[in-house]
């Protein structure tokens, strides 16, 4: 599993921006990590890399924010307030986890996959954020699918 060390929010956003340049419709990225680990900062960079120039914020209370106007749509989900698969399905979010009509980035993916080390999508990347210091983060990732 590749590891990247981010030395600050700008590095984390730059990683998202770089990955967005290779993204295609149908990608699913599952993000895992504690509060304040950099997940939303990464999504801000990813949106910028897709060409979206508007404001990007965590969808904790909305559950999903859709960003259009870039190269492909970005669906930013936050499962923090949901505890079970049944709640996620009940909220109507299941389709985003399999074949989105753009890129889906899901914060707190562990609420969906539990302890399974995979994401059930065509092209999926599981990204784990670990806080190493005030601004330093370890970002591990693993690809699934094709």
Kindly describe this structure:
- The protein is α/β, with parallel strands linked by helices and 146 residues long.
- It has a single domain (36-138), classed as P-loop containing nucleotide triphosphate hydrolases (Rossmann fold).
- Helices cover 24% and strands 29% of the residues.
- The protein is built from four helices and seven strands, in the order βαβαββαβαββ.
- The protein has helices spanning 9-22, 39-49, 85-90, 110-113; strands at residues 3-6, 27-32, 64-67, 74-78, 103-107, 123-131, 137-145.
- It has a seven-stranded mixed beta sheet with strand order 1-7-6-2-5-4-3.
- β6 and β7 form a beta hairpin.
- α1 crosses α2 (39-49).
- The chain is globular and about 40 Å long.
- The mean pLDDT is 91.
């Amino acid at each position: 599993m590749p590891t990247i060390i981010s030395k600050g929010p700008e590095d984390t956003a730059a990683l998202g921006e770089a990955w967005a340049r290779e993204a295609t419709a149908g990608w699913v990225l599952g993000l895992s990590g504690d509060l304040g680990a950099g997940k939303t900062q990464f999504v801000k960079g990813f949106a910028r890399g897709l060409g979206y120039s508007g404001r990007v914020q965590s969808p904790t209370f909305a559950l999903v924010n859709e960003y259009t106007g870039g190269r492909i749509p970005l669906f930013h989900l936050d499962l923090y307030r949901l505890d079970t698969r049944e709640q996620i399905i009940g909220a109507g979010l299941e389709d985003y986890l399999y074949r989105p009509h753009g890129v889906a980035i899901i914060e707190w993916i562990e609420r969906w996959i539990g302890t399974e080390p995979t994401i059930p999508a065509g092209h999926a990347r599981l990204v784990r954020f670990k806080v190493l210091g005030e601004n330093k983060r370890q970002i591990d990732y693993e690809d699934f699918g094709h």
